[in-house]
Structure formats: structure tokens, C-alpha cells
Design brief:
- By secondary structure, the protein is an alpha/beta fold.
- The chain has a single domain, classed as 3-Layer(aba) Sandwich (Rossmann fold).
- 33% of the residues lie in helices and 27% in strands.
- The strands form two sheets. Strands 6-7-8-3-9-10 form a six-stranded mixed β-sheet, with helices on both faces.
- Helix 3 runs parallel beside helix 5.
- It is globular and about 50 Å long.
- The two termini are 26 Å apart.
- The model has no long low-confidence stretch (mean pLDDT 93).
- Bound molecules: adenosine-5'-triphosphate and magnesium ion.
Length: 215
């Protein structure tokens, strides 16, 4: 039976105004779920709540069997480092270092190794000896996706991972991510504005009127 990777219950959060309430959500192994919604409706905030970065005003998030917001900061750090693959809107690569060095940082920390095949699939193998600052935005994005996958995470949280890629490269990145979760019994929560990317996922939800609805 497949394991529940993430289970959120009755989640609510406000900043200046109420973003959402009563959000229930769960993610199983090998499952990919897309979240869509208008700009500013709270998608990134919800992804940050699911992925250990923002404690919600109300509700609980259980991730890989842990009650996330009952944990100490060191325990959260360990889960982020070992089990989560975070692909957020800003990618945190070290600009002065080579692409290959950026990948090695992640794999040394997690005890994994960088697979040549992954670099070939993402069409970045030839870029390994270039400095990050010399690469295009879309090349940097693919390096950061390779870095995340090289860690072998159990859950991928991706916020617009194909946002600044052309359609062909966007499809390539999506197929690499989807193959990864199948092969590794992982799961993915993806925020996107692109319905064709959302359609490649197993489930789609719309965040609208402060609620999350399947569609
Ligand atoms: N740390 C914060 N402090 C105060 N307000 C915040 C914070 N983060 C987000 N907000 C506000 O919450 C609202 C939702 O932001 P969020 O980034 O979750 O939207 P989004 O749905 O991801 O939008 P987009 O599609 O443009 O990325 C916005 O009005 C934003 O200004
Ligand atoms: Mg956002």
C-alpha cells in the first residue's frame, strides 16, 4: 500500500487579510498534485506551510509521519536537508561557483552522488564547468532542479519550476520530475499558472475564494 507522504488538516492562514481556511490536503507516494490560482491568492504561502517554512495560524501538517510544527528547529532542518526537494521561485545557487560545485554541495550533504544520466536528460551536462553567473536563467533553473533531485528527496515542492522556460524545455523538466517521483516512490506538489503543466499531474486543485477545490 502506498504511504501518505503529506497530510494537512484544517489549515488556515492570514497575513493582512485571510488567505485561506479549512484546507485539507494529502499526498501519496508516486503522486503529483498541481495547485493553480490567481496571483496573490496564497499558493506560495500554502506551499511554504506544507514544506516546513511557515507555521499556519490554524491546522496541522503531518509530513513523513512527523507533526511538522510540533518539531524543534534542528529536527525541521534535518527533514529539509534529507527528505525535501525545494524548487522555489528564486533559486539559491552560488553565483561565483561552477555548476558542478553547486551540485556537489547538495550531494555531499546528503551522501548521494550526481548522476550523469540526469544531467544529460536536463541537457546541462556540458555546462558543468561554467560559473553560475555565466548561465542563462533557464539553464540556472535546470541546474537547480538537478541539484534538488541529486539529493534524492522524498517530497518535491516546486513553485513555478517551468516559469521561465520555453515550452519544450518546460515539458522536458516536467517529464524529468514526474519520472523521478515514479522511480523513487516520491511525491510532488507543484504550483503553476500553466494548465498544460498541471494537466501532466495526477490531480489538480484550484485555490480560489479562500478554499482549495479539486477540478
Ligand atoms: N511574509 C509575508 N508577509 C506579509 N504578507 C505576505 C507574506 N507573504 C505573502 N504575503 C501576502 O500574501 C498574499 C499571497 O501571497 P503568495 O505569495 O502566497 O501568493 P501567490 O498565490 O503565490 O501569488 P503568485 O502567483 O503571484 O506567486 C499576497 O497578498 C502577499 O502580499
Ligand atoms: Mg507565488
Amino acid at each position: 500500500m502506498s504511504q501518505t507522504l503529506l497530510k494537512a488538516t484544517s489549515v488556515a492562514h492570514s497575513f493582512d487579510y485571510k488567505l485561506f481556511s479549512d484546507i485539507d490536503f494529502d499526498l501519496q507516494e508516486q503522486e503529483s498534485i498541481a495547485i493553480l490560482g490567481r496571483s496573490g491568492c496564497g499558493k506560495s504561502t500554502l506551499l511554504h506551510i506544507f514544506s516546513s517554512f511557515i507555521a499556519p495560524d490554524e491546522g496541522e501538517v503531518h509530513l513523513l509521519g512527523h507533526n511538522l510544527y510540533g518539531l524543534k528547529e534542528e529536527e525541521l532542518e534535518a527533514i529539509r536537508c534529507n527528505d525535501l526537494g525545494i524548487i522555489f521561485q528564486a533559486h539559491y545557487l552560488f553565483k561565483g561557483m561552477k555548476a558542478v560545485e553547486n551540485l556537489e554541495i547538495a550531494t555531499i550533504l546528503s551522501g548521494e552522488s550526481v548522476e550523469d544520466k540526469l544531467l544529460e536528460r536536463l541537457e546541462i551536462k556540458e555546462l558543468m564547468n561554467q560559473k553560475i553567473g555565466e548561465l542563462s536563467g533557464g539553464q540556472q533553473q535546470r541546474i537547480s532542479i538537478a541539484r534538488v533531485l541529486s539529493k534524492k528527496p522524498k517530497i518535491i515542492f516546486a513553485d513555478e519550476p517551468t516559469g521561465n522556460l520555453d515550452k519544450e524545455t518546460g515539458n522536458l523538466v516536467m517529464s524529468v520530475l514526474l519520472e523521478y517521483i515514479q522511480k523513487n516512490n516520491a511525491g510532488m506538489v507543484l504550483v503553476t499558472h500553466d494548465e498544460s503543466m498541471a494537466n501532466l499531474c495526477n490531480k489538480r486543485y484550484l485555490l480560489e475564494n479562500r478554499a482549495l477545490e479539486a477540478f
